[in-house]
Amino acid sequence: MKTMRFYSSLALLALLVSFASTSFAQVGFTLHGTLASPTLDDVNNKVRPGVGAGLKVFLGPQVAVGAAVKYISLKYDKTEAVGQELTNTTSLVPITGTLDLYLTKGAVRPYIGGEAGAYIRSTKVRFNGNEISSSSATKFGAAPKAGVMFALGNVGVFAEGTYHFIFGSKDGSANTGTPNNIEWKNPDKLWGLNVGVTFGIPN
Q1: Which of 2, 75, 149, 177 would be a feasible disulfide site paired with 90, CB 3.0-4.6 Å?
Q2: Which first-to-last residue range defines the signal peptide (predicted)?
């Protein structure tokens, strides 16, 4: 729990600073769908679906900071035999701080940016609908991104590509815990495509 609180605090830091440091501060809200292809554990993993939401604070027409959360379904296996059912599900929930730099102010706004924070991976096994096993791990992750937004008044329709790096723990523990325990070498990787809508963008 301490690990999750630590990284969640990091994810929200930019948002809190923005409220304290700017008078522009226009707030936007984002909803999007996600397609992701992980290299976690199984190189044969297929493209997986997900959803996400975020809060953006525009420090000006071309700069936004905020916080975001996503849910990505990494794996779903179901086995049925003689009236019995066994399911195995694995999901990834990134909770991150975000930065977006818009390159233009017009109707078409290409942008670059990034996000960083806690990546929470959970696995659950159910037998006949009853949970018999569960586990979770919280690691630090970061992702550069690039995309384009089409502005329609105060609403923006966007598509962006991301490439996530999920770092392990130096001591091999499931939860990284502190920045000093982040293992920067050989991170797991996850590419993603997000398509969605942002409400409350600057004109």
Answers
A1: 75
A2: 1-25
